[in-house]
UniProtKB/TrEMBL annotation:
PANTHER family: GLUTATHIONE S-TRANSFERASE THETA-1, PTHR43917. It is an enzyme of class 2 (transferase). It comes from the Eukaryota. GO terms for molecular function: glutathione transferase activity. This is glutathione transferase. It comes from Dissostichus mawsoni. Its EC number is 2.5.1.18. One of its GO terms (cellular component) is cytoplasm.
Length: 232
C-alpha cells in the first residue's frame, strides 16, 4: 500500500495515524503542498483532483480521507480490535455521525483559523465559530464518556484530534479552560502512544515557515479564492 500524504494536512494525519496504530504496512509518499507538488504532472496521473491524502492499494486508487479510513478499517476488520470501527450497528452509526458532522464544523472552522491572516474582527468571528464547534464536540459527542463512542478510542477520535491540533499549531490554545477536552486529548495520546502522536504532529507544530512558503509559490495563487470564500 502507498499513501500519498503531507502531514501539514489534518486528513493526512488521520490516515497516517490509523495506518500506524493498527499496523498496516505502507510506503509513505510525500506530496509537499506548500511547494505545489500536488500540481505536478506526475501527481495529476494519480489524482486528477490534486488533493491528498491518496491511497494506492495495488492498482486500486482511493481519494478522500474518510473513504480511505473506512477502507483500511474494513479491509483489516478480521484482525482489528473492534473499538476502532465497532461492528455494533448503533455504535458504528455514532462513529459515522461524527465523521459526517465534523467536515463542515470542526474542520471548516479550525482550518479557517489556521490558514488565514485576516482583519481582527473576522478572525474573532472565526475563533468564535471554532469555539462553538469545540463546545458541540464536548456537549454532544463526548458528553461524559472517555472517548467519542464510549470507553475506547475509535477512528472518530483520530479525526477529531488532528483537527483540533491544527489551530493549536498557530499558537491558539483551544484547550485553555476546557478540562473535559484536555482530559480527552490526553486519553487519545495515551491510546495512540506518545511517540506516534508526536511523530504525526511534528511537522505541523513547526508550521511557522509554511505561510511564507505558500506565498512564494505561484502555483498556489489559485487557492486564494477558496480561502477568501471561507470568510464571506
Amino acid at each position: 500500500m502507498e499513501l500519498y500524504l503531507d502531514l501539514h494536512s489534518q486528513p493526512c494525519r488521520s490516515v497516517f495515524l490509523l495506518a500506524k496504530a493498527i499496523g498496516i504496512p505502507f510506503e509513505f509518499k510525500l506530496v509537499e503542498l506548500s511547494a505545489g507538488q500536488q500540481y505536478s504532472e506526475e501527481f495529476g496521473k494519480i489524482n486528477v483532483m490534486r488533493k491528498v491524502p491518496v491511497m494506492k492499494d495495488g492498482s486500486f486508487v482511493l481519494t478522500e480521507s474518510v473513504a480511505i479510513l473506512k477502507y483500511m478499517l474494513q479491509k483489516h476488520s478480521s484482525s482489528l480490535a473492534d473499538h476502532w470501527y465497532p461492528a455494533d450497528l448503533q455504535q458504528r452509526a455514532r462513529v459515522n455521525e461524527y465523521l459526517s458532522w465534523q467536515h463542515m464544523n470542526l474542520r471548516a472552522h479550525g482550518s479557517k483559523v489556521f490558514l488565514l491572516k485576516v482583519p481582527k474582527e473576522k478572525m474573532d468571528a472565526a475563533v468564535q465559530d471554532l469555539n462553538q464547534s469545540l463546545q458541540m464536540l464536548e456537549d454532544k459527542f463526548l458528553q461524559n464518556k472517555p472517548f467519542i463512542v464510549g470507553d475506547k478510542i475509535s477512528v472518530a477520535d483520530l479525526v477529531a484530534i488532528v483537527e483540533i491540533i491544527q489551530p493549536v499549531a498557530t499558537g491558539l490554545d483551544v484547550f485553555e479552560g476546557r478540562q473535559k477536552l484536555t482530559a480527552w486529548r490526553e486519553r487519545v495520546k495515551k491510546a495512540l502512544g506518545e511517540k506516534l502522536f508526536a511523530e504525526a504532529h511534528e511537522v505541523i507544530m513547526k508550521v511557522g515557515s509554511l505561510p511564507q512558503q505558500m506565498q512564494n509559490n505561484s502555483n498556489l495563487e489559485m487557492l486564494k479564492p477558496k480561502f477568501q470564500k471561507l470568510l464571506s
